[in-house]
Amino acid sequence: MTAVTAMTATVSPAGAAAELRTALREAGLPVGATGTDDYVQLGTLRASDARQLARLIRTGTKRTLKAARALREICEAYGVHLPELRVRQGRITLGACRVDDAVRLARLLGASSPGPEVPDADAVRDLLAQAFSAATGGGTLDVSVREEASDVVELGALDARTARRLIGALRF
User: Fold this and answer.
1) The whole model's pTM is what?
2) E-strand stretches of the chain
């Protein structure tokens, strides 16, 4: 087990607080962190330390945030509505979308039309998953159908690298 694996495998609040304290100390930020129940609480930050922490977070997530912004813009330009697209835990979550938006995205990625009638969500799920993989050179996208809404598919999360390949496929 590597040090990074060991750190990310820590799930207890005390372990998470210790990991955060260590990272903050390594970044030169003297901030305490304690873990209780399911939460980690940061100690008081000086304003200059808070600004430094904000810069570090932005720097560390810059590529992911930039990819998310580009993906949002290109999808909007093509009329693909992904209202839940956002960055969560270092990954770009695409979120829920209507079946017709998923079909539009699949077509943009090179999928053949599913037919003249409105396809069911299961067919769209399969179509989009295949088109995504082909367009991104083997990238994967989890696609599931919402049980309570058969006209909505739930699109999974991407890392920044896969998102950039998706953006490249959508641009051409």
Assistant:
1) 0.73
2) 33-36, 39-42, 86-88, 91-98, 143-145, 152-158
